[in-house]
Specification:
2 domains; 144 residues; alpha+beta; 5-stranded mixed beta sheet; 24% helix; Immunoglobulin-like
């Protein structure tokens, strides 16, 4: 009789241990919270900036800064810049990403490409003096 009760106790302990492990595993699984979804990094983003007698993309009427372009850290960014002004040259520069900038004669176009590897707000501006210079301010926002 003693042997039989030991077997029952051993089976009971095994069952108790199995149930405990099962419950602990279920608690561990239910406590798992997946990480928040992150925006796809490394996407390619392309923008066209039109420089003309009304600023960047009509910023004279849209307000400053304009346009406002939003990308994610790690994105590959290409900005195509077109000078549609028929009279004067305009410039294009981006703080941190393209400080040297470009100078475009009337009718000229060019592109600036870079990987957005720094988070923050970056000013896009005309880097040469022109008649609408004060209206040629845009913004690049790089989100993490």
């Amino acid at each position: 009789m003693k042997v039989r009760s030991m077997k029952i106790e051993m089976v009971g302990v095994s069952v108790l241990l199995a149930v405990t492990l099962l419950v602990a595993g279920a608690v561990a699984l239910s406590a798992y919270v997946p990480p928040p979804a992150t925006p796809s990094q490394g996407a390619t983003k392309e923008f066209t900036i039109v420089a003309a007698s009304d600023g960047f993309n009509d910023s004279l009427h849209e307000g400053i800064p304009w346009p406002i372009m939003v990308v994610h850290k790690g994105d590959k960014v290409t900005m195509r810049v077109v000078n549609r002004d028929t009279v004067e040259a305009h410039g294009f520069a981006i703080a941190v990403y393209s400080d040297r900038g470009l100078t475009l004669r009337p009718g000229q176009e060019a592109s600036v490409s870079f990987v957005a590897d720094k988070e923050g707000n970056f000013t896009i501006y005309c880097n040469i003096f022109c008649t609408v210079h004060q209206f040629m301010v845009a913004k690049l926002v790089v989100e993490g």
